[in-house]
Amino acid sequence: MTRHARNCTAGAVYTYHEKKKDAAASGYGTNTQRVGKDSVKDFDCCCLTLQPCRYPVVTKDGYLFDKEAILEYIVTKKREYARKLKEYEKQKQKKEEESQEQTANEELKKLQAFLKGEKTIVSNASNNTDAASVSNMKNGKDKMLPSFWIPSKTPEAKDVTLQKPDKTIYCPVSGKPLKVKDLIPVKFTEVNDPDDKKSLIVKQARYMCPITHDILSNSVPCAVIRTTGDVVTMECVEKLIKKDWINPLDNSKLTPSDIIPLQRGGTGYASVNDTLEGKHERPVLQA
Question: Pairing relation of β-strands 189-190 and 207-208?
């Protein structure tokens, strides 16, 4: 028997650590892993392509997109709306034609029933005797096939009723209405380091605040000035801009609505900056 302090084999309780160890070895249970830095989108990357933006634009909610990608998304949604609207109009016209045809058939049936009633006003006793019969084999019913498993008697699938499509285009991240005129061009200030000969994509410190010259990164909260499109740090906004509400770059007057906080992070595993954790669910190990 092994040492009691290291490996307790005499315990009557299946402990949490033992269960977790056995689950990892057997392939059961849920694997949970904290999402690393490499899995988090950089602050200057497009929310659609997840690549650094060539022509960055930002929405009024602070989500950054590449202009080419977001315009392609809007055009695709407009084409999809046109296709759905065409199908909806086609179905609507078909229903109107069916309704008119049904009305005409009902009028024809009423006319035929009236003419038939006029012809059979006078009837003899023999006809009354035949009409009083309750047999289910009379009037050609013996030729009918009531079996539900016969293909000709099975119910048919009904057409799906299409709803009128929504013309509004929504942001792919926030889900709020999105318009082209609401996209604001963004201007990043590059870090000018004569000793660093690397390409801009390879550099770790690519952009800086044009006012304080602080390096921008995912760990630094940033904001976009609506009037000029410059990206500054939130610390600069709190300590400099909010004092007089004047843009230090061009001395123009600003309002609180001109400051757009830039959204950071966000992965394909979880919501933006809420739960950066990836889970892989496997079969449950029963104790």
Answer: antiparallel
Contacting residues for 210 by C-beta, under 8 A, at least 6 apart: 189, 230, 231, 232, 249
In Å, how far are 209, 225, 251 from 191, measured between CA atoms? 9, 19, 23
Output the CA angle 276-59-270, nearest 5 degrees: 15
pLDDT per residue over 33-55, tens digit each? 666 666 677 888 898 888 888 99
The pLDDT score that the predictor gives to residue 38 is 66
Q: 51 Cβ partners below 8 Å, 6+ apart? A: 45, 66
Q: Containing H/E element for 259?
A: strand 259-262
- 139 dihedral zone (left: phi>0; alpha: psi -120 to 50; beta): left
**CA gap 109, 126 in Å, rounded:** 27
CA distance 120 to 179: 71
Question: Counting beta carbons within 10 angstroms of the beta carbon of residue 18, is it exposed (0 to 12), middle (13 to 18) or buried (19 or more)?
Answer: middle
Task: Categorise residue 140: left if φ over 0, alpha if ψ from -120 to 50, beta otherwise.
Answer: left
Token duo for residue 49: 């392509």
pLDDT band at 6 (very low <50, low <70, confident <90, very high): low
**280 burial level (CB within 10 Å; 0-12, 13-18, 19+):** exposed
